[in-house]
Design a protein that fits this description.
single chain, mainly beta, 7-stranded mixed sheet, 4-stranded antiparallel sheet, 1 helix, 11 strands
């Protein structure tokens, strides 16, 4: 498994921006896809954005389209989620997760959206957007 650590969350005013990061350590030989999920109080965990190992395939959930950008730097073992035009409804704990099968890289979009597809999870970082 890959060990994942998120950082960069915090409190931001509505309309503002935030970039959160996910650093991986452990099985450096693994070629894994990565997803950013979020979970708000009382709601199910949902995929915000996903990226293939190569970085050339990305997927965005409806809530993220046009506002968020996922990217990765494999040299730094880091995946980023740039979040712009933040809204109070974006308030949630954000988790990154690693998919050893690299579902998005293989074009398996449905699989890539499901939490059960992912092998490793970070501890989460809280993002709070004030109105």
């Amino acid at each position: 498994q890959v060990h994942l650590v998120e950082s960069g969350g915090g409190l931001v005013q509505g309309g503002g921006s935030l970039r959160i990061s996910c650093v991986a350590s452990g099985r450096s030989s693994s070629r894994y896809g990565t997803g950013w999920f979020r979970q708000a109080a009382g709601l199910e965990r949902e995929l915000v954005a996903g990226v293939s190992w190569s970085g050339d395939r990305v997927y965005y959930g409806d809530s993220a389209k046009g506002r968020f950008t996922i990217s990765r730097d494999n040299g730094k073992n880091t995946v980023y989620l740039q979040m712009n035009s933040l809204r109070p409804e974006d308030t949630a704990a954000y988790y990154c997760a690693a998919d050893s099968r690299d579902s998005f890289g293989k074009g398996w979009v449905v699989a890539g959206t499901k939490p059960a597809t992912y092998d490793s999870w970070g501890q989460g970082t809280q993002v709070t957007v004030s109105s």
